[in-house]
Amino acid sequence: MSAKHKHDWVVAGWGDREPMSTDDLEYYWHFNVLLRCSCGKEKYREATGSEVQDRIKSRMCSGCGLMDRKHDSRDDCIRELFKRVSALEARLDRIGESFSR
């Protein structure tokens, strides 16, 4: 007689929405995860707080805190942040010029 299979669930995907930034935690009450067992069975359930935090940490650069950007060095982080600040400054200059007309 064989032992009954016990499902070993692992997160295989996210539902209609997944955490994209730490700000998402303030806006959404819950996230759904797709769980899959090695036997092929799947199910959805609400994600736990630790699963959400792990997902955010895995997608965030530890140096600059940007999502979906894993920089190899601190210099890469600084360059990325400099580009973002420069773009914001240019945008503010354009807005300021439009008000001065």
What does this structure look like?
The chain is of the alpha+beta class and 101 residues long. It folds into two domains: 59 residues, no CATH class; 39 residues. 42% of the residues lie in helices and 15% in strands. It contains three helices and three strands. The chain has a three-stranded antiparallel beta sheet with strand order 1-2-3, with no helix packed on it. Strand 2 and strand 3 form a beta hairpin. The longest helix is centred in the C-terminal third of the chain and has 27 residues. The protein is elongated. The relative contact order is 0.11.
Summarize the structure.
The protein has 101 residues and is of the alpha+beta class. It is built from 3 helices and 3 strands; from the N terminus they run βαββαα. It folds into 2 domains: 1-59, no CATH class; 63-101.
Overall number of domains: 2
Quote the beta fraction: 5-15%
**SS class:** alpha+beta
Anisotropy-based shape: elongated
The run of helices and strands is EHEEHH
Largest sheet: 3 strands, antiparallel
Average pLDDT confidence is 82
In DSSP terms (H or I, runs of 4 or more residues), the helix count works out at 3
Number of strands: 3
- Strands ordered across the widest β-sheet: 1-2-3
The helical percent reads 40-55%
Distance between the termini: 85 Å
Give start-end ranges of low-pLDDT stretches.
none
Radius of gyration: 21 Å
Give the SSE layout.
Elements: E1 10-14, H1 24-27, E2 32-36, E3 42-46, H2 49-59, H3 74-100
Antiparallel strand pairs: 1-2, 2-3
